[in-house]
Amino acid sequence: MEQATGLSEHDYRGRFVDEILQGPVYAEVEQRIRQVLQTGKPEFTETFVRLPGEPKAHPWALDIFPLTDEVGQVQGAGLSAYDYSQQYESRERLALVSEARTRIGASLDVVGTARELTEVAVPRFADLVSVDLLDPVFQGDVPAPVLSGPVPLRRAAYRLASATSREHPAPDEISNHVASSPIARCLAGGRAERHHVNDSQVVRWFADDPVQAAQARACGVRSLIAVPIRARGTTLGAVMFVRCSPREPFGPDDLAVTEDLVARAAVCLDNARRFTRERGISLALQRNLLPHGPTTHPAVETASRYLPAGGGAEAGGDWYDVIPLPGARVGLVVGDVVGHGINASATMGRLRTAVRTLADIDLPPDELLTHLDDIVTHTEDDAVATGEIPGAIGASCLYAVYDPLSGICSLARAGHPPPVLVHPDGTATVLDLPAGPPLGLGSLPFEAAEVTVPEGSLLALFTDGLLSAGDRDLDEGLDALRHTLARPASSLATLCDTVLGTLSPEARTDDIALLLVRTRLFGEDRVASWDVPVDPAVVAETRRRACDRLAAWGLEDTAFVMELVISELVTNAIRYASGPIRLRLIKDEALICEVSDSSSTSPHLRRARVFDEGGRGLFMVAELTRRWGTRYTRTGKTIWAELAPLHLSTR
């Protein structure tokens, strides 16, 4: 006690503890002594005590015990005290490292992970902590090796124990660290460095970088540790730990603590970097695969939205598409792939491409889903055989074909929620479609349903993430969606935002794709059709009637080309097919000619030889039109051809 307090034994005798040393800590010790005297039970406690002449309090262990006579009566009390600062600091360092394991890496965000490191260390371990990273890390890229010399680093996180000190540089600002700085040296050498403010290396650094010197003096820097951030053989940046006066400077044991902390943070930062890269790739892939903006089509007006899970944290496999089809029709598709990330986006891309390819050959919705299911089944069988994880098994899809001439929409679904139809009077209903199985199960049928859609109706296609957002079940989600879609809105884009704002909270666990479609009908003034007898003599009359209609539409300039197309298609139907034969002209963005018959045999384009008497008709059709093709119906087939927009311009 004499050595610890500087007082003599004479100063202690005959006095209580709180009379010798002043302060609430000593008053509490005196109270505990009296309690031991009264109860006869020993007490052990830990407390921080600042003795006379010491700059700060130290942790002490106090053992207060009763003094008894030979019969066990309490005659007094004794106190022994032990300064266990070294053990306490070791325990605190272990607790700090243990806490870092649970608090650092809670998010897959580079800046968030860096901030978590500063929050763990300040003020418990250091007065100031800064995390500076090489710029490619923020984009998810692998940075190049760091060479000696000035190093440009971007600030990711910065935390001060004192609110009076200013930050330099500001968060997200790039700063050049001179070659003599501890940051540059630890990056070049790959080892942590511990320095006192008066060390020659620090003095040189301050001389080379006056801005950092001024900042250090303003903070009252006493000692610092610079640690490189390395993970999987790659240097990501560096962390600076600073202690200011009057705090004890960093010791050798503190250097080991910082290395443990940064090693933990480095793995988490690299995980966040890799996630950033993967997310960037998947988002770029998804942006390139999804339609860019609303699709312009004469049959429909569209608006769409796509929201990844977690408000953009990770891209997923939801998709939608609007596909122009022959005969002024339009294909509408929305799908959902299980999972997130690059694999889900790649799988989504494969399915979207497959749907577009199948739609291009003009398959009905139920047949298209059947072929899509076969593609998924065969693809996943190959993936399992090669040891890959299947990605499309369980994916869902809804495919619809809307015909603006008849106002009929044909739909089929594979494990997907049914769409909502809002009539012009505001009545919203969920379409009752046969529920097909998800894709990839194989050997299960899909059924299509036809719905008459009044002009001006609204058709809403979506993924199940919209219905289940906010922990709702699907029925509650459908009811909420119906009521929201029935609200008046100035535009489809505004209605999309209203739907998402009402049904989708900020924190989402699933992706959301929403496609709103406003239907249009073609009037009789844009369509002309005739029944054609199975007689070659009627071809000339058919051409004449078609030219009269083109003249009424103001498309006389197209008459010559259209006469050739009609002659070839009608003549082929009369020669090689069977009746009834029907010719239809559609005035759309392009002029469409359709010839329908009851035969299922499709004509083939071939190149005729010099002296062949036939075989040039379809070749001329292909050369004179923008595109042509065949689609099959329940009663036969339809051969169609579209004139390029150039032929519709007037001179």
Automatic annotation (TrEMBL):
One Pfam match: HATPase_c_2
Domain GAF: 109-279
Protein keywords: Hydrolase
Keyword Hydrolase in annotation: yes
Domain spans labelled PPM-type phosphatase: 300-519
Highest taxon, organism lineage: Bacteria
Keyword Hydrolase among UniProt keywords: yes
InterPro entries listed in its UniProt record: Bact_Sigma-Reg, GAF, GAF-like_dom_sf, HATPase_C_sf, HATPase_dom, PAS-like_dom_sf, PAS_4, PPM-type-like_dom_sf
Identification of the protein by name: SpoIIE family protein phosphatase
